[in-house]
């Protein structure tokens, strides 16, 4: 197979399908989502069989158990995929929405209309559910999409692609609005991220290694985040009971998620009071505490202690490990966060009005919180209805990205024959 | 001078100034704008003297009269610059604006806060007024900026930079919030567009050649447009008197602007009626008409006619030249526009309700109009208060870019001790 030729063809087909998708009615798009949902439930047995072929091959190749777990498509996962599509169908259609339509002194009326981006490329690991979630979000937002999942999931992804395309056709939408790349050749990814003539944006979903490679090689803009180095700062005006709840939840609710706290900052004047309470809670979960000298001195005698190194302030552990640092005050906390944070999500715990507002304004991260767990930084929790990813970039989309992140706006002018004088 | 070392230093200073600018109060920023405005009027004589040095050098080098004209800073231009700053001061401050603050079922309240992008690099030709306009917009939007103007304007730009910095200091803002690059070495531009660690976005203002070079070499995202190939489509349901006004204004109001019409599309069934009327109007202005065979046959005998070549449909003339094509209907017009338009600004003239809505929805351009001249596509005409440029990209900013285009938003969460369950 000539990968370059194949990908050009996929790109050209996507571009052409994107024009038809842009003018599809809300009802057509929702009908496609409902048809795909029903087809997934109808063909659950075939999907599990395709998934089993992937699992067998992956096991034979000695894939790690955690990756096998992600690759596997349970009955519950199939039901969840089908329900997810119905949820997306029930969301309001962002496309065609007109805002801020105002008359100007010249007589023209100017506003903005929300429109699809065009063609979205999505690159992800071997998780078959992403195929359906991503296809659903792109259909709803009137985009065409090119999906490239991890090669270990190829059989299941192709089976899902067939059902997606059946739904598109059933709703009178172009079959090439959702294309799953048919080859597992990695060169296809290199092509996908360097076809700005066909692809408007890439959404990579995967580990830091994958994304760093895509940034280096890609010429198409990306909606992405690399790291989630999230902070909680416990201010000396904090309600310490809230502080304990938040600092425990932000670390221990789940270890492997990007919005998990990785560094805890504590104001010096409350450190002796709150740190032992927290250390007791963390000890229950066997969380290792990598402390700066002050915190280490306060926690002397507690289990799982270690001295923090400089590198700890900029490490995303994704594990039961927490870096702890004692700081003088809000200023030092903000300075530390703006230096070491990955600009993902940071929280202050305080009852002080002015400090709460300062933290919110001055911390330069995608999600900034007062008195809430960092774990809330998520499209569903924020009320977006769905999430295609989280962005730590500042241009276009920042923070959890829902349907609107897959759209743009254009200016529209309602005139009555006006000319410029 | 070691350009690389110098630019790194400029970048580092800008980044550090951007943090202070992000937290500056509205009143500080407005005060800086007013102080700069006053200083420009106070030092008008010195500015003209610096400008004269640039003009003398440019004349000695044989710069073209049109470029000398742009370079020259008249009394009127000085007053306009000073007034422009006061206008920017009077605009509402976009920074810190909070929108869509909503309670979620978990109890947290989620919204979005508008924040500066950080550091804006602006690359422009030898037009000293851009130095002040751009500095003003960046100050108001809480960004730091690095300005690189055409080398022919170096003395005037440096004189202006001194006044800008005087205003910043007078308002208690960091002097390095606005830096004018001190060298005319072109390598400085190459550095500026490849320092994503210091520069968040580049706004190039200049000809297509400059921008194509920047796209090829740059790694920092850009807000830009290459071409303005704008269309007017006269539908067979058009009010032909409006059509004549709009088609004349869109071409003849100014020839050299990016929102000037370059191709006129006319529905077949009204072509014989409207084209001779228009040809008479255009003949007055000696506009050359490059016609497809049908239009050519209809206009046989009129002056300044030529047969259109394929290349004419994708040429931005910036001159008294117009391409004319007869089309069957709205569908062919939309198809032609979506194929050849530079996605800048396109207009339909029609009294038909459904066709007006279809054109607005289906034409994929930054500004789409019904019954209005393309010449309205402009930040001031659209009510943005000011304009840093026009974007034909779909990501981040599209169409005329005002203060909001120099900002981003972050999610903010007001919590009360909530944790995720």
Please outline the helices and strands.
2 copies of one chain form a homodimer.
Chain A: H1 3-22, H2 26-42, H3 44-60, H4 65-71, H5 75-90, E1 98-103, E2 109-116, E3 119-124, H6 128-140, E4 144-148, H7 154-170, E5 178-180, H8 187-192, E6 201-205, H9 208-217, E7 230-234, H10 240-252, E8 261-267, H11 268-284, E9 288-291, H12 293-298, E10 305-307, E11 321-327, H13 330-340, E12 345-349, H14 353-362, E13 367-372, E14 389-391, E15 399-401, E16 407-418
Helix pairs in contact in A: 2-5, 2-7, 3-7, 5-6, 6-7, 10-11
The pair of chains with the biggest contact is: A-B, 65 and 65 residues
User: What is the architecture of the largest domain in chain A at the second tier of CATH?
Assistant: 3-Layer(aba) Sandwich
Average predicted confidence as pLDDT of chain A:
95
Give the strand tally of chain A: 16
Biggest sheet of chain A, open or closed, and with what strands and sense? 7 strands, parallel
| Element order of chain A: H for helix, E for strand | HHHHHEEEHEHEHEHEHEHEHEEHEHEEEE
Question: Tell me, what's the shape of chain A?
Answer: globular
Would you identify the CATH H-level superfamily of the largest domain in chain A?
Aldehyde Dehydrogenase, Chain A, domain 1
Alpha-beta classification of chain A: alpha/beta
- What's the quaternary structure here? homodimer
**Which topology of the largest domain in chain A does CATH recognise?**
Aldehyde Dehydrogenase, Chain A, domain 1
* Side-by-side strand order of the widest sheet of chain A: 10-9-11-8-7-12-13
Distance between the termini of chain A: 59 Å
Question: Roughly how much helix do the residues of chain A carry, as a percent range?
Answer: 40-55%
Q: Determine and state the CATH class of the largest domain in chain A.
A: Alpha Beta
Unreliable stretches of chain A: none
Number of helices of chain A: 14
Kindly give the count of domains of chain A. Answer: 2
Determine Rg of chain A (CA atoms, Å).
24 Å
Percentage beta strand of chain A: 15-25%
Domain Aldehyde dehydrogenase (chains A, B): 11-287, 313-383
EC number (chains A, B): 1.2.1.41
Pathway (chains A, B): Amino-acid biosynthesis; L-proline biosynthesis; L-glutamate 5-semialdehyde from L-glutamate: step 2/2
GO biological process, one term (chains A, B): L-proline biosynthetic process
């Amino acid at each position: 197979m000539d990968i370059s030729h194949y990908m050009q063809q996929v790109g050209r087909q996507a571009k052409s399908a994107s024009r038809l998708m842009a003018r599809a009615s809300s009802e057509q798009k929702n009908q496609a989502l409902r048809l795909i949902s029903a087809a997934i439930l109808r063909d659950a047995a075939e999907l599990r069989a395709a998934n089993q072929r992937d699992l067998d091959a992956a096991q034979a190749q000695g894939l790690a158990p955690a990756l096998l777990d992600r690759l596997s498509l349970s009955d519950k996962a199939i039901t969840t995929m089908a329900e997810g599509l119905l949820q997306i169908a029930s969301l309001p259609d962002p496309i065609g929405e007109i805002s801020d339509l105002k008359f100007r002194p010249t007589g023209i009326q100017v506003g903005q209309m929300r429109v699809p981006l065009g063609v979205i490329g999505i690159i992800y690991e071997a998780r078959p559910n992403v195929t359906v979630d991503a296809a659903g979000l792109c259909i709803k937002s009137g985009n065409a999409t090119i999906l490239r999942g991890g090669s270990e999931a190829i059989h299941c992804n192709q089976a899902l692609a067939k059902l997606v395309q059946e739904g598109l056709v059933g709703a009178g939408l172009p079959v090439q609005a959702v294309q799953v790349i048919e080859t597992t050749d990695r060169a296809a990814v290199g092509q996908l991220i360097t076809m700005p003539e066909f692809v408007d944006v890439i959404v990579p979903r995967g580990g830091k290694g994958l994304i760093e490679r895509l940034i280096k090689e890609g010429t198409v803009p990306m909606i992405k985040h690399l790291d989630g180095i999230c902070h909680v700062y416990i201010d000396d005006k904090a309600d310490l009971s809230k502080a304990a709840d938040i600092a425990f939840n932000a670390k221990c609710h789940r270890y492997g998620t990007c919005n998990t706290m990785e560094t805890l900052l504590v104001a010096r004047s409350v450190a002796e009071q709150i740190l032992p309470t927290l250390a007791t809670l963390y000890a229950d979960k066997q969380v290792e505490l990598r402390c700066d000298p002050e915190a280490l001195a306060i926690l002397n005698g507690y289990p799982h202690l270690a001295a923090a190194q400089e590198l700890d302030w900029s490490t995303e552990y994704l594990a039961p490990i927490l870096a702890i640092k004692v700081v003088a005050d809000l200023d030092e906390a903000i300075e530390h966060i703006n230096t070491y944070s990955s600009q993902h999500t940071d929280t202050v715990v305080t009852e002080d009005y002015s400090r709460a507002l300062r933290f919110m304004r001055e911390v330069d991260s995608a999600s900034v919180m007062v008195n809430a767990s960092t774990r809330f930084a998520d499209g569903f929790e924020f009320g977006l209805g769905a999430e295609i990813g989280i962005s730590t970039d500042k241009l276009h989309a920042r923070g959890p990205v829902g349907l609107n992140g897959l759209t743009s706006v254009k200016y529209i002018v309602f005139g009555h024959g006006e000319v410029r004088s």
